[in-house]
Amino acid sequence: xxxxxxxxxxxxxxxxxxxxxxFIRFVKGxxxxxxxxxxxxxITTGIGIISIYSIINDQPTFLDIAMxxxxxxxxxxxxFSYYIEKKEKNx
Length: 91
Description:
This protein is mostly helical. It contains 3 helices and no strands.
């Protein structure tokens, strides 16, 4: 079994299942924190899919896109935690 077979037949179905489960959590999430965490995990899963696509098609340019997306997700999580902290101080 080669690396491409492993990526096609094991990793991509697992990432697809995780996207489906994360979407359910995003829709059903009882609080805004659950939805933000779900969205952050969606972005992380998307980074994994982009990385696999980059490996399979031998295009390292997509890894740069994945790194930029990771940075945006990180900054979004930091911004949300800052918002939650300010909200708790005001109460």
